[in-house]
Amino acid sequence: MKKITLLGATGSIGIQTLDVMREYNDKFQLYALAFGSNVQQAIPIIKEFSPKKVVVKDEKVKQELIGHIDHTKVLVGHEGLIEVSKDDETDILVNAVMGSVGLKATLHAIQQGKHIAIANKETLVTAGHLVMDEVKKHQVSFLPVDSEHSAIFQCLNGENKDQVNKIILTASGGSFRDKSRRELEGVTVTDALKHPNWSMGAKITVDSATMMNKGLEVIEAHWLFDVPYSQIDVVLHKESVIHSMVEFSDSCVIAQLGTPDMKVPIQYALTYPDRLDLPQTKKLNLVDIGQLNFNKMDFNRFPCLKMAFDAGREGGTMTTVLNAANEVCVDLFLNGKISFLAIESMIERALNQHKVIKTPDLETILEVDQQTRKLVQSYVD
Ligand SMILES: NC(=O)C1=CN([C@@H]2O[C@H](COP(=O)(O)OP(=O)(O)OC[C@H]3O[C@@H](n4cnc5c(N)ncnc54)[C@H](OP(=O)(O)O)[C@@H]3O)[C@@H](O)[C@H]2O)C=CC1
Ligand SMILES: CC(=O)[C@@H](O)[C@H](O)COP(=O)(O)O
Ligand SMILES: [Mn+2]
């Protein structure tokens, strides 16, 4: 029985992680969970899984929650996230929070030798070098949940990493893939939230529409698989059936395929190296699909992807700025404060204003993250 601490239990990945745990309740037990403020979503989860500890965003949410639950210790904020993540009783940390709020807890968990299933790509974008250094130092398993990275991880299974030519990430194109840049001028939040293939949280769905999601994933792949940016490609693939590919020295390409269902990579990260039944998922039927499409990525159409490659190549605090600026801009867009196209122009402005600090420590990362959030907010205030 593995004890799991699940950060982001009320979110899209969190809920699907609980589905997997429900199916395999002889293998996994929910020791602790964390969520932000969605108390109504959290109450039935807490009642069903009876975790020993729950972490919420702040005191106000704690007060809202405690009248509804018994026998569960309620903790608050960053300190709470760190406490449950490094807790002696935690075997596996599933990090499925949205945003760089997951960084410190992840570092503490690794330092305590916990195994990590990582969905929270922002943690790797903001401070990938710190995270991967700790992973190497403490020899923990750090398994990707993100569908593309799970695919790459599977393609690399048993292969010699020195014989990798390139990693090829697939991108669906997001909600606006068939629109020209001019047509993007009037798009709404409701339109942006209609992802063609995946049902996900609001922030990642907007990231997918701006193509920043793929940009974050390029940086995530760089850190997870220790591959230089010159060996990472992105190809448009509107069906999201091939989740990603790896090309090897002999020109052989290995791809991982499946219907778009996040329960597959979530379960694989929890049960690796075993592949257990997943009865709830739809099997891939290529005959029914008939045709798979691939298109060249257009960096002028999707400037966020170019910004992410450039920030990744620059390194240091540049990706911290990219991530923090993006988090603020997407939030402003979702709250109707800025237009869709302002997301990319404001991120670009923040990147241009930043003087990079190479190999920053944690304190520097956190400081740059906060400064960037304030700066980007000041563009609209
Ligand atoms: N959804 C997907 O299919 C995929 C997601 N990912 C990545 O996984 C991560 C989660 O995405 P997704 O599940 O879609 O996001 P959601 O927005 O659906 O869920 C985010 C979760 O994080 C919680 N949260 C937010 N802020 C805090 C905080 N300060 N303290 C504690 N918990 C907090 C939310 O709580 P609450 O809502 O209660 O406030 C919620 O449980 C992201 O990094 C995303 O990029 C990667 C691949 C696919
Ligand atoms: C399910 C998942 O991993 C998402 O990151 C997904 O890949 C988003 O799709 P696109 O970014 O390709 O539109
Ligand atoms: Mn992905």
Automatic annotation (TrEMBL):
Domain 1-deoxy-D-xylulose 5-phosphate reductoisomerase N-terminal: 4-128
Residues in 1-deoxy-D-xylulose 5-phosphate reductoisomerase C-terminal domain copies: 143-225
Known EC number: 1.1.1.267
Pathway given in the UniProt record: Isoprenoid biosynthesis; isopentenyl diphosphate biosynthesis via DXP pathway; isopentenyl diphosphate from 1-deoxy-D-xylulose 5-phosphate: step 1/6
GO terms, molecular function: 1-deoxy-D-xylulose-5-phosphate reductoisomerase activity; manganese ion binding; NADPH binding
GO process annotations (BP): isopentenyl diphosphate biosynthetic process, methylerythritol 4-phosphate pathway involved in terpenoid biosynthetic process
Catalytic activity, reaction form: 2-C-methyl-D-erythritol 4-phosphate + NADP(+) = 1-deoxy-D-xylulose 5-phosphate + NADPH + H(+)
Binding site for 1-deoxy-D-xylulose 5-phosphate: 121, 147-148, 172, 195, 208, 213-214, 217
Protein name as annotated: 1-deoxy-D-xylulose 5-phosphate reductoisomerase
Protein source organism: Aquibacillus salsiterrae
Lineage, top ranks: Bacteria, Bacillati, Bacillota, Bacilli, Bacillales
